[in-house]
Structures
1.
Amino acid sequence: MESRHQLLLAYYGDDFTGSTDALEFLSRAGVKTVLFIEPPTPQMLARYDDLQAIGVAGMTRAMPPAEMELTLQPAFEALKALGAPHVHYKVCSTFDSSPQIGSIGKAIDIGAGIFGALFIPLLVAAPALGRYCVFGNLFARMGIGSRGEIFRLDRHPSMGSHPITPADESDLRLHLSRQTQKTTGLVDVLALTEGGQSAQDELMSQTGSGNRVILFDALTEDHLDTIGKLIDNYAAVDKPLFSVGSSGISMALGKYWAEQGFLQPKINWPDAGKAENMLVVSGSCSIVTAKQIAYAANHGFAEIGLDTPAIANSINLENTIAVYVTAIVELLDSGIPVIIHTSLGTDDPRFVKTYQTFAARGLAPNAIRTKTAELFGTALGLIAVGVAGKTTLKRLIIAGGDTSGYVARAMGIEAVEMIAPISPGAPLCKAYAPGWPAHGLEVNFKGGQVGSEDYFETVLQGKNIS
């Protein structure tokens, strides 16, 4: 990097849970970071002191390419105007995407046109999250923050059955070739293990061969150190480096900046402590989340299944969800934590019935996926903010990557900031929602692949399982 600037990095997350993942690793490195719902205005930024990084929690993972372009073109332009030397498009560490939905290739094409860099770094591996890339192939542990088995991505039990973007290819170069005409080179694990000069030489060889996207393997934290130093050398305030990848980007740069003395000392994060009450709203279809719901229901949580076919046929959504708000408030006031969910997996009868409802109206499969994420995310958000307005809600978990952005928007949340670690990639945050009941609420955004079976219980207790 040619010079230092107060704002070191700006990132755009393709969903909310993934955005809080990056928020955590930047914050834990000592980078003062706030995550916004929309690209912040100067007036919004002025409300937060000493910022070194900002994020925007988007929803492009659930969008078709045309809609992505309408969203990302102005968003990337806005982030570029902030003057940060790094601009990062944050994607899930399981590379959730397809040519039809959440196309990472489309985001790369848009970013390439705006930033015009020599190459676009692509780093998907995140060893701290159980995500490893070796010779271009991605491997993922079953359940972030767990001791689950590690699978090659195309053989992963949960990702293979993802309802929107099922994984069928582990070689990220091949996966990406379906989404962009730009070719992808590789700085492999051998070059990274040999050290910085070897990685630099391989990078130059790959770009010299005409590859515009450069994928970096990573198996260990040492590999991230090498990558962070390498890519930071190509970033400048007057010519930001546009990168794509998981929170591995945040980890790599944060560690390098800390080693160089550019950051404040790391915070000794306090334990969150047990919550007086807690609500979980889940729009996840993940096997991991379904097991967590079952465990919690057997350990003192009240479980409420949202009637999604009724929601899909609702004329007045607020009237339809009112009964859930009343029931949840009564349970919370009785000291019982509550989970309300839209699905217990893709074999849940509600999943099939809802799909059939929208298909009968003539919606195409991709449109159904987008519609259900928006509708059910909004319904869960209205339920959560309705509960917060009728009782003192202490802590809220929002589960489900595709729905989480709609939940947050329905609650009036403007931004979030990390206040305590809970599980790798899913910190406990303070919600900023001026004028809304959600203002000041403790919020935890959990992706479908995050956590062991006792996740909800550990968050209720405020235990740090990172």
2.
Amino acid sequence: MKKKIALVTGGLSGEAQISYKSAVTVGNNVDRNLFDVYRIDINESGWWYEPLSGEKSKVNRDDFSITDNGAKVNFDAILLCIHGTPGEDGKLQGYFDMLHLPYTSCDAATSALTFNKRYTVAVAAFAGIHVAKSLHLFKHTPVSTEEITKQLQLPVFVKPNNGGSSIGMSKVNEKEALDAALTKAFKEDDQVLVEEFIGGREFTIGVFKHKEGTMVLPITEIITHNEFFDFEAKYQGRSEEITPAQLETTMKQQLESAARRVYEVLNCRGVVRIDFIYDVQKQQPFMLEVNTVPGQSEASVIPQQVKAMGWTLKQFYSAVIEQALA
């Protein structure tokens, strides 16, 4: 009998637009010979089941069930495609844990931790992973630009501490631009991370757990036409993504080892994308951040990496679902 899978999309943040694009790619590539897929949209107006035909209906939040053609449907697993809250920050994971429903992402604790960029790099650094020097700022406790520049060397990146897709992020080369960058970031979040710039080559690496163990996908090098890999570069064609990246053997091994180490240290599950800068002078990778529900849209790198590995997306999503069920 086919397993019943809830494809959960939407979300309560500005990243919802990316979530819907990811859900299209994923939905089009789930093996319907193995799984019955039901699209669930969680948004500001409620939790909705959206059948291919007919009117949408509310999800029963008591047990996360739906009614389809007059019959009650209970799900075997959740295929998460929500970027940002509540699908990437541990909220839904905790809810599904209480219902004993398996899902295709990291658990509640890891999701909550990795959604906080500062705490992620702190834990990674404690485990011996190289990270950039940074400051963690809070809206309720203002810190002057003078204090920031005393502790960090320009240029710096200023970004919301929680969230993704580079929304609200700025690169600051001059002290005079710091206030505007902080204001921009604080519009997106009550916490902001200010991080020293590391010069080098930028890479992003997909990692997922498979029945054969932890697998590292082919590495992608990011070459942006903007000053940094911002929202426009990610989603509006302002970057080149080279998959697989052209790498010397030692550099490739270092990046793969670092990605696998991050995945294990943070107790990740499902498919995760980890961003790195490789400092060519120091000859070592620096971890930037971890995305526990990485983009799956046509513009995203994970589908590129899966194809570069020689798998079809249908094979890949089947493996991800089966790992959650296991």
3.
Amino acid sequence: MKPQTLPDFDAVLAAAARIAPHARLTPVLHDESLDARTGARLYFKAEHLQRGGAFKFRGACNAVRALPDAIAARGVLTHSSGNHGAALALAAAGRGIPAHVVVPEGAVRAKLELIAQAGATVHRCAPTLAAREDACLRLQAELGATLIHPYENPQVIAGQGTAALELLHATPDLDALIVPVGGGGLAAGSALTLAARAPRCELILAEPTGADDTARSLRGAARVTVFTPQTICDGLRAGIGAPNFEILLAARAAAITVSDAETQAAMRLLWQHLKQTVEPSGATVLAAVLQQPARFAGRSVGLILSGGNVDLDAIAFCARCGTT
């Protein structure tokens, strides 16, 4: 991956202006029963209600709209397990340019359907990062399309930072912000926003125990690049990106790892109390609060619900998550 300039908060502000006519201003949800259960005041940024069903549309839209016309006309390309691919397809369709998405075998069917419905061309590959990247390099050479990396692209990072910007506008006195972390686009963008607008707000990253490379990277101050993810959170299986880790390390972000069982229980609570369809990756943020209630007791906490693209044929687990 060619080194890229790190984005700054000015890039987040530019992204906010650029995507405003295209992205949804998602609501901030609050539920008194969840406050009582956790002892904290929880404010959920409902990015599962974003276009494409995930925050990913913000970064994809910003990256696509920032391209000069001549370059954009050749189309865009990415690799994605689902949400970024769907977001890029939607953003490209909105600009009237071709989109190509390399998808690993085993991706969630609901996400694949979104990619296809938005009009992108889907290219299958083996379920490894190396296979994804090799396919993208081949297609880029063949098509001349611009590669929009799912989380390392500076315009993508800046676009993702607009979710935290909107949340802070709605709830300016947050003590902590919890975001899911996989490749780190949302986490890094949120770090840029907090540093500029709420420097005393603690940034906490929710990560699956079975894909805890970011937590280990932050502990050792060196990026972990070799690991095999084992988690139901399909959107968080990617390794932390190099520019993303650099931003998060500078921001002194902390990480809380949660088990799949804790994530499933949190997902059930979100469905039950907020009446919202939230996917496992998004539910990790509530799982982090439920795991460490003393850490958040009495505090105002923002939580970004990253997506809601759930395979509805696979929700039988709800009956096994315990009762509330």
4.
Amino acid sequence: MSILTRYLIRSHVGPFLFAFTAVTGLLFLNAVAQRLEDLVGKGLGFSVMAEFMLLSLPHIVALTFPMAILVAVLYAFSDMTGHNEVTALAAGGVHPGRLLLPLLGVGLVLTGTMLFFNDRVLPESNHRLSSLLSDVGSKSPTFELREEVVNQVHTADDTRYFLRAQGIDQASNRLTDVTIYDLSRMGENRTIVAQRGEMAFTEDRSDLYLTLEDGVIYETTDARPGGFQRLYFQTQIIPFRGVGTQLQRETGAGSRGMREMTIAMLGQRADQALEDVHNVADDMLSLSETALERTLAPAPAGIMPVDEGQRVGRDHHTSETASESRVTQHRWQVQYLNVYQYQVEIYKKHSIAFACLVFVLLGVPLAIRFPQGGVGMVIAMSLGIFFFYWVGLIVGERFADRGQLHPWFAMWAPNLLLLIPGVYLATRMGRQMATNRGSRMDEIRYWLGTPFRALGRRRRSSRAAMTEEPA
């Protein structure tokens, strides 16, 4: 590896790490804040919270990794051009295109890394995160009791309790007008009514003890139909075992969504959906042939014209055939859209990974062409390019999911639209080079004003031609 190549790679490491850390941190805090409401008050341990945060990172990394590459390329080459390093290299016989080759190699390696990440790491983390949130959502802790609502209390031994309180003081854990429906014993029903109550958890907050005062217990049993027992009490303690921290984990269980599948899984599902499309199409063809044969079948010889009853029966059969045809057509459309949706996810994984290489190819000539923008220009260009890319990706996905665009074109169109100007600017790197003179916006004004200046020159030349007198 030459000195120049090492220098180019080393100059990108710092900006890349800074951009990647900053953007990932911001999006990570936003994602945690959105999900925090679903996690607080669940009695979850530190390990569960840490697992949630760790599993939330891969989805964010898939967004910020290409963005950090674009920011690093723009900043590094803008800084090199601003310090006349590119000009000095060109004066020494190093073509600017030579500076692009090592970064294209690095971009190719990062593209393969990103493809592996999107195919292996991201689906598994999405699946584990979905399972974790599902497990947490099914957990109903007792300290989230609501007033004047029948709350179901889950215990470790799966006993069934339902509790209702007219008033709950969260600060003192005091309850008023308490009613408990005890269905823990098969064949027996017990209802406990008390004027007051107080909740107390054990030190590890796993067990709840409810102390009731001034109440009555009503019991009925299937052994004595029509009879019940009533017991009055001044103080009654009811334990609820394992209600605070019991979280039933089913990691890896359940079906996987589209974003929880690898490329191989998505390919299998797409092939199966395509096979279903062919099967439904065969059913539609068979149904149409049967209906056509019955319609064109000649009447047997010697049979009188059909009467009203026969005509009604034939019309009924025709109506059933039309209904079956509509149902079959709807099935075909559903399976056809399923094929597109699976293919969209496959092409999306490849497209996002390839964007790393596209951003390198586009960022280098842009940074050399506009070196005086500074950090503000780097941020503005990065946001503009990435906004265009992700909007194109989202819009294309919507159209492809509806069957209005082919999945390949919908997912690869943003890359192609950025790749074309990137190749064009890269081929002109040796012809147009900016200097560090002028203000930060002079280069952009000049670049944007080029078409208008050309139009003005054509108008002036045409006016001059009209005013010339013929010889």
